[in-house]
Structures are given as C-alpha cells and as structure tokens.
Design brief:
Lambda_DNA-bd_dom_sf, about 100 residues, HTH-type_reg/antitoxin, 434 Repressor (Amino-terminal Domain), about 60% helix, elongated, Putative transcriptional regulator, Cro/C1-type_HTH, 2 domains, mainly alpha, 6 helices, DNA binding
Amino acid sequence: MSAFDSLSKGLQEALAFANGEISHAKVHEVSVAEVDVAEVRQKTGLSQAEFARSIGVAKGTLLNWEHGRRHPTGPAQVLLALIAKKPSVVQDLLRDA
C-alpha cells in the first residue's frame, strides 16, 4: 500500500467515525486534570511575565487564566499539569537544550 493509499484510508476512517458510522478507528481519550494556574506559577518562583515567556504564551493570556476569565486547553493544559507535578520541568528542559 502506498503512502497516499494509507493516508486516504485513514482519512476515510476518520470521516466515517466523525459521521457516527461504524469504523475500525481507535479512539484514545486522555483526561488532564485542571490546575490552578496561579498556584502552578507561584511554585516555579517566576513572575507572571517570566512564567508566560517560559511557556510561550502572552502575559495577557496568563492573566486571563489566573483570573478565571479563560481556561487553558489542549497542549497548554498538558504543559501546566506537568509543571504542577514538577515545577522545574521547563527550566530543566530549556537549560539542557
């Protein structure tokens, strides 16, 4: 099977699944705990500006998360959950890069 055929088959399976049709597609659900963003940041010892910069978001985005006006989703939520468990993870990784 060519790469194109494999890709085409995968897209057809995804469309079938999205349309509620029986499909052989595997669905992986991952649940990530919600975190208190301000508490996570405080554990790192970084200022709001430093923390926002270290995780690649605008300071305004961080402020919205900390004040509950918005909530992190997707990769940001996963990253914050990792930082909650090990506050130095970002600095450790960036230092080694």
